[in-house]
Amino acid sequence: MLKDEERIAEVKRRIAKKEQQQRLRRRRIVSAVCIAACFAVIVGVSFAMPGIIGRIEPGTSSGFETAATILGGSTALGYMVIGLLAFILGACVTILCFRIHQLNKEEQTEKQKEDNGDGADQ
């Protein structure tokens, strides 16, 4: 039979294990939501981009594209918009990859703790 201290320690260990599993589950859900949001942004921007570029009007000062200004025509503004969106998308993908790497690292650490803990009990 187990002593009271051993029972209390076992209950505390089980509680800690369940709390760790809940934290891991929450992190997975947050990561999945972030990934879904990133894909939604990608798809939304890809469908909206032709309309955005179509609404941009060329400069009205002379009607001719000149070499003296890089922002005078609609193509330059389109490139800037696409560049900005590409930067935002790259930042989102970098953050998501970092979160996935961190989640995998935590899972491996948890598995190692479980393996070490189970082996010590036997």
From TrEMBL:
Lineage: Bacteria, Bacillati, Bacillota, Clostridia, Lachnospirales
Transmembrane domains' residue ranges: 29-56, 76-98
UniProt keyword list: Membrane, Transmembrane, Transmembrane helix
Protein's UniProt name: DUF4179 domain-containing protein
